């Protein structure tokens, strides 16, 4: 018993764990501070969050069909911190709510500027939405308000949901998603194939697009199993009348295979890395007037 106690005490004071907890708490506090700075705009303080935009293209024509908004955090001491690290913290602390609406507004402001500069181009903005944001009863109401404040049509917006958004309380989720669809906003399932959503229920959700996770694309040219998985997702999407986007295309070989399988859209370093707003604008100009 004494030994057990000693063990558990040891566990509590394990220095590496303590360091981890301390780091987490620190980041949580910093996240909160950064959001306060961002929302109560003060030009003497640097803005820590900003959006990057990654082009989504038609694999047949190479034309831009949209941009995915990917948030970035420039931490004052630590430099750039990956969203893979800070989004989960924002989710656990509910800070994702404030951060999410900031990303949304900023994205819409950018889309409005693009609309003005490129009036003859139609492309969409894809925004990642976490399950916690989607649970709010006034979610679609707020989307609509923001779209209206920037005079943007709902059809210009696509929300990327993860499969975990579709796991619990099915009728409620379907009602929520239908409300979003009613304002013409489209819905994608992100990282498709990595979650646990039930294939037999997929058709019950009012979704428009499946995005094939990049882990499958990355291995499709070296592993027949991964190739077959991609083939199956493309076929599934088409059977259900959904669009399909391949994420993380890095090589010409992957592109060729995807075209052969009939995948229409794609995104990845082969076309472009995520870009800051200025570089994304430049990318649009080039896409519009390709130098051949
Ligand atoms: P995601 O939504 O699946 O975003 C795609 C990720 O793949 C991005 O990573 C992007 O930079 C990366 N990527 C794109 N093309 C390639 C490629 O060709 N090769 C490789 N190796 N990677 C590629 P990022 O920006 O680090 O974002 C990671 C994840 O963080 C996102 O995955 C998304 O789940 C989350 N995230 C990012 N921004 C937001 C946001 O604004 N809101 C929410 N809720 N989550 C976000
Ligand atoms: Mg995404
Ligand atoms: Mg994704
Ligand atoms: Mg992914």
UniProtKB/TrEMBL annotation:
| Protein name (Swiss-Prot/TrEMBL) | EAL domain-containing protein
Which segments constitute the EAL domain?
24-288
Taxonomy, top ranks, is: Bacteria, Bacillati, Cyanobacteriota, Cyanophyceae, Spirulinales
The leader peptide range reads none
């Amino acid at each position: 018993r004494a030994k057990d106690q000693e063990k558990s005490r040891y566990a509590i004071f394990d220095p590496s764990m303590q360091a981890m907890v301390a780091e987490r708490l620190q980041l949580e506090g910093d996240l909160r501070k950064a959001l306060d700075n961002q929302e109560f705009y003060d030009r003497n303080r640097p803005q820590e969050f900003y959006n990057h935009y990654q082009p989504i293209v038609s694999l047949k024509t190479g034309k831009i069909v949209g941009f995915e908004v990917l948030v970035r955090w420039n931490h004052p001491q630590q430099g750039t911190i990956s969203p893979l690290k800070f989004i989960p913290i924002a989710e656990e602390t509910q800070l994702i709510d404030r951060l999410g609406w900031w990303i949304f507004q900023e994205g819409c402001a950018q889309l409005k500027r693009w609309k003005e500069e490129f009036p003859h181009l139609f492309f969409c903005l894809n925004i990642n939405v976490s399950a916690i944001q989607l649970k709010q009863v006034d979610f679609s109401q707020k989307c609509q308000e923001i779209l209206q404040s920037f005079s943007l049509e709902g059809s210009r917006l696509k929300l990327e949901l993860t499969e975990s958004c579709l796991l619990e309380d099915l009728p409620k989720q379907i009602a929520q998603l239908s409300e979003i669809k009613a304002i013409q906003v489209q819905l994608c399932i992100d990282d498709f194939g990595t979650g646990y959503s039930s294939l037999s229920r997929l058709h019950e959700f009012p979704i428009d697009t499946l995005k094939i996770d990049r882990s499958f694309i990355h291995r499709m040219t070296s592993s027949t199993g991964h190739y077959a998985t991609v083939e199956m997702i493309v076929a599934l999407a088409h059977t259900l009348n959904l669009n399909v986007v391949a994420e993380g295309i890095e090589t010409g070989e992957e592109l060729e295979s995807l075209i052969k399988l009939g995948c229409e859209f794609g995104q990845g370093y082969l076309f472009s890395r995520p870009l800051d707003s200025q570089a994304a604008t430049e990318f649009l100009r080039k896409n519009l007037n390709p130098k051949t």
